[in-house]
Amino acid sequence: MFEGTFTALVTPFHHGVVDEAAFARLIEDQIAAGVTGIVPVGTTGESPTLDHPEHRRVIELAVQAARGRCKVIAGTGSNATSEAIDLTTEAARLGADAALLVAPYYNKPSQEGLFRHFKKIAGATNLPLILYSIPARCGIEIGVETCLRLAQACPNIVAIKEAGGTVERVSALRATLPGAFDILSGDDSMTLPFISAGGVGVISVASNLIPAQVCALVDAALHGRFDEARRLHANLYPLFKDLFIEPNPVPIKHALALAGKMSAEVRLPLCEMSKENAARLEATLRKLTLL
After folding, report:
1. Mean pLDDT calculated for residue range 7-25
2. Per-residue pLDDT for 76 more than 90?
3. How many C-beta neighbours within 10 Å does residue 11 have?
4. What is the Cα–Cα distance from 29 to 24, expressed in whole angstroms?
5. Catalytic site residue from 71, 106, 120, 132
6. Active site (annotated) includes residue 261
7. Spatial contact of 210 and 253, defined as CB atoms under 8 Å apart
């Protein structure tokens, strides 16, 4: 259901306001490059600093711009179950194809609490739901057994975005979960090894800038052309790493600005890149002839 390349879209800003025209152009670039889907208002979309009307508007814009040409997976997770339900049901009303639900952050629930949280959301919608485990940001991991319980209890929980950073974790998920339950990489630099261990694609930051290249890497890996996939991975690896030398999405927005796609503007508490890191990223982009 969710095999392929999905772009975790940035949310462009101009003087503090969502830049709707730049957002629409970004989505057109993604579709022209052949991405499977787009993911508005996730971490890369700066969802923590969007108010609720903005959150809804960005989802609406994504659905309108996509016009059914690719899947739209709306980020609707929260550390409050009631808020996640409201955002998810609103995403369904706006026409999203699925929702991405990050693990509750800051309040650090138990695995039983996680199970009840996601089960409650799943019971409130018919949308396909993708779990999102990213312990470095949330302070907790969605346990493998919890994923299995959710897959068994909730027919519309059908996939996970895995950003724990280890192939062992993907192997454990693949060995435990039903075969139809999709595992997506949440880290560009881990996409190739994750697919080799049973993943089916990526929710990518880098594809905001290089959608065609990320699609080519994923396609080669999924079709067993691993020599080609390794070459693509090796070429792009320096960029994958440099896009995280400062907090996401600061570097990818800086790169998009250098490419003339939009402003590099982010919202506090995020801020612009340091001069040293900006120079490093620009050098990498020039080496890859992306500028």
Report:
1. 98
2. yes
3. 28
4. 9
5. 132
6. no
7. no
Question: Has 132 been annotated as catalytic?
Answer: yes
Selection from 262, 254, 261, 246 nearest residue 282 by Cα: 254
Q: Cis omega before residue 155 (within 30°)?
A: no
Residue 162 identity: E
Q: Which residue, among 141, 66, 58, has the nearest Cα to 76 in the 3D structure?
A: 58
- Whether the bond between 269 and the residue before it is cis, its omega within 30 degrees of 0, is yes
Residue 165 has pLDDT above 90, yes or no: no
**Residues comprising the chain, all counted:** 291
The residue from 71, 106, 120, 161 that is catalytic is 161
Cβ 134 vs Cβ 103: under 8 Å: yes
| N- to C-terminal Cα separation, the chain | 35
Question: Which domains are delineated in the chain?
Answer: 4-223 (3.20.20.70)
Model confidence, pTM: 0.97
CA distance 110 to 142: 9
Residue 205's closest CA among 171, 243, 242? 243
Q: Could you tell me the two tokens for 288?
A: 């890859």
**Burial degree of 51 (CB within 10 A; 0-12, 13-18, 19+):** exposed
Arithmetic mean of pLDDT over the chain: 97
Write out the two tokens for 131. Answer: 């779990």
Q: 203 and 45 in contact (C-beta within 8 Å)?
A: no
- Can you list the alpha helix ranges (DSSP code H) found in 12-166? 20-33, 52-66, 81-94, 111-122, 135-138, 144-153
